[in-house]
Design a protein that fits this description.
By secondary structure, this protein is an all-beta fold. It contains no helices and 11 strands. The strands form 3 sheets. A 6-stranded antiparallel sheet has the order 1-2-3-10-5-8, with no helix packed on it. It has a 3-stranded antiparallel sheet with strand order 7-6-9, with no helix packed on it. A two-stranded antiparallel sheet has the order 4-11. The radius of gyration is 13 Å and the shape is globular. The N and C termini lie far apart (39 Å). The mean pLDDT is 96.
Length: 113
């Protein structure tokens, strides 16, 4: 089956952020997400899942452990299990990205703030 934003499960998280679930299996999760200007998720970590973020549009700021990392359109970042992190959109434009998690982050999110 071909997946897109048009035929995938959609949900809203945080302060008006969108997520489309393109693949959700025990060993792999793929989501396309959109964050409006000025939004951020809560600092958290995953015990088991490694995550890979690929920026489709905009500029993301990642808070990774004690570091602030800027990731631009066409760039990516990997987050290892146990690493405290959050993504933030600190620009005036929408931020769009893919987040790929292996295994899935279902029931594997520990908030630290």
């Amino acid at each position: 089956m071909i997946h897109s934003k048009k035929n995938s499960e959609h949900y809203i998280w945080g302060d008006g952020c969108d997520s489309w679930v393109l693949r959700d299996a025990q060993n792999l999760s793929v989501k396309q997400e959109k964050m409006p200007s000025g939004t951020s998720e809560k600092l958290h970590f995953h015990e088991y899942a490694e995550q890979f973020f690929y920026i489709l549009k905009g500029d993301a700021v990642f808070y990774l452990n004690d570091e602030k990392v800027f990731v631009k359109t066409g760039e990516s970042i990997s987050i290892l299990p146990g690493s405290g992190h959050k993504i933030s959109n600190e620009t005036s434009e929408d931020l769009e990205f893919l987040v790929i998690s292996s295994p899935s982050t279902n029931n594997d999110r520990i908030e630290t703030q």
